[in-house]
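Try it yourself: sequence plus S-adenosylmethionine, in.
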Amino acid sequence: MQVMERVLDGAFLAPSLRSALDRSDLAPVDRSFVTDLSYGTLRRLAWLDAALAPRLRAPEQLPGPVLCALRLGSYDLLIRGTPPHAGVHAWVEAVKADHPRMAGLVNAVLRRVEPPISPTPAARLALPDWLLEGFRVSLGDADAERAAAAMLEPGPLWLRAYTPDAAERLLADGCEVAPGPVAGTLRVRAPRPLDRLEAYRDGAVQPQNPASCLAAELLAPSEGERVLDLAAGHGIKTAQLASAGARVTAVEVDERKARASAANLRRLGLTAEHRTADLTRRLDLAAAPAVLLDAPCSGSGTLRGHPEIKLRLGPSDVAETARRQASMLDTAAALTAPGGRLVYAVCSLLEPEGEAQVSAFVDRHPEFTADVLAPSVPHVASPHGAYLLPLEGLDGFFVARLRRA
Ligand SMILES: C[S@@+](CC[C@H](N)C(=O)[O-])C[C@H]1O[C@@H](n2cnc3c(N)ncnc32)[C@H](O)[C@@H]1O
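Structure, out:
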């Protein structure tokens, strides 16, 4: 309930939950339960509110913790399938200490709550109307609904292998391991947090969604090739490119992220050069034959892992990120050597950050042409790239590969 309240107040879910769990002495099974409650409830918040609506006169007037208990409790009962005789009492007790007068209400509501009858598509998929409409524009009706529904379900832990024996090491750590849908990726169930696995500490693995691996893979650098990784962040793709033998220069505006990237590369036994710079401005750096721009975006393809995004994002935020992406793409174009290739990726499924962005780019830069892509995961092709669908635990991305004449 505390984590939920904090997130509804504007905090990010992952760090809020991590710090609450670190302060708790919960057993692993209870940590998983709390994690599912938090993510699941935020993923389905609009649907849960539609379920609660007929039972509550003025939900916005309830004390924050009481509303949180009702939403979490509804998720527990309606989605996790906990029977009322086992599930209701705990939520009543949870509000009793601070709001004793509300205990009866919580009991009565949770005993009667039912799935909403004929919810609107947006309530059914727990997405704001404008966002669902945005997915329809880029993906078409059927794939938009498929994508939105898939992002309501939890995803597995995905790791990318950095040593040939990564899977064996994970097994020795007590993990369950299966191959992922993209070469080098593993679907893992870990018995304890990642940073307490030997395989992670020894640099055998790195968490990375297969869709993210695929985006960097489109660059296909050759051994020793000079690569610019623009908007390199914590360097997840920097590591991937360096492990392919490329000589990588990672450029990022946030110095703390650049330092974290350098430390992570050391863990993995890899090296790259780091530069701190604002890529919306021209950059004094020699052009390279291979450039990746993994641009900052709305994150609309990552609602499974970051469900709080859909509670905050608005159309004007997307317009703002699209403007920034356009100016970063112009910088990336100047840094791509003649004959070179430029991969553009965003973890968004929205047209202004995807197809429309690249279509406008080739109009501004006729020296670039877009490759026809055939990614190995479910996708929706567009004239200048492809939307990777966020099915079965994958993140949603838009990717394009541009070649300079
Ligand atoms: C999608 S994330 C990059 C993730 C990273 N490529 C990875 O795989 O780990 C986008 C990054 O762009 C950075 N960024 C935002 N505005 C920027 C700017 N004007 N110049 C350079 N980097 C910027 C953000 O700090 C963020 O780290």
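One thing you can check immediately is this: The first strand starts at residue 157 and ends at 161.
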